[in-house]
Write a structure and sequence with these properties.
With 254 residues, the chain is of the alpha/beta class. It has 9 helices and 11 strands. It has a single domain (3-130, 180-201, 209-245), classed as Spore Coat Polysaccharide Biosynthesis Protein SpsA, Chain A (Alpha-Beta Complex). The chain is globular and about 50 Å long.
Length: 254
Amino acid sequence: MRTIGVVPARMASSRFPGKPLAEICGRPMIGHVFERAKLFGNWDALVLATCDPEIAEFGEKNRYPVIMTSDTHTRALERVAEAAENCGLGIADEDLVVCVQGDEPMMRPDMIDVVLAPLLEDRAVEGTVLAMEITDDALFRNPDTVKIVHDTAGDVLYTSRAPVPYCQELSPGIGARRIYGILAFRWSFLHWFNSQPESPLEILEACDSNRICDNGRRQRIAPYPSIPSYSVDSPADLAKVDAYMKNDPFWGKY
């Protein structure tokens, strides 16, 4: 069983074109993501996957392994699967593929351990998603934040941009969690996922995880406590991330 990390990135973001190369603390965002992912020390391979020459040029300049992918992918996991299959390891069904989204510049290397743990502990688990606790009401109400509803075993039932589970006032007792952009899959499961068409709830909520739910399969949450760690969804997010990055414990280690 090998562990393959893929950082997917493309310039043509609908809400923020060119965001992988937008600078945070003087470094392109994709550089923060890749360097932080490298701090996880147990990769068999870690690659940058893109269809854009600008991103590839940046990666090669920084000696990142780069895999050029199709420019027709509509979902990040399609790009991840293509890159994993072509990373040169001869991928097998039991291998683990980790998607580290290119818009998570404050990700921490221990998040990789957390998202892999359920797959290593239980052979029945086929896919996981880092589920960060939500403690801020504004984040809970924000439609850019994809919320998770899960069952008592920790398997995802539904993901939504609406504030779910429903509450009049956010409190720790409701167990609100959000998708953080780190997901892991057994290769056989990721291959299956990409063989399925986009599902109704996936399209409505614009969230890949609902394709799994719609087809009666399961994705296990990997719980993570709430910390100051922000995704970049729009240009307005850059200033917030830039401000918090200066106090981040991993800034300065790369």
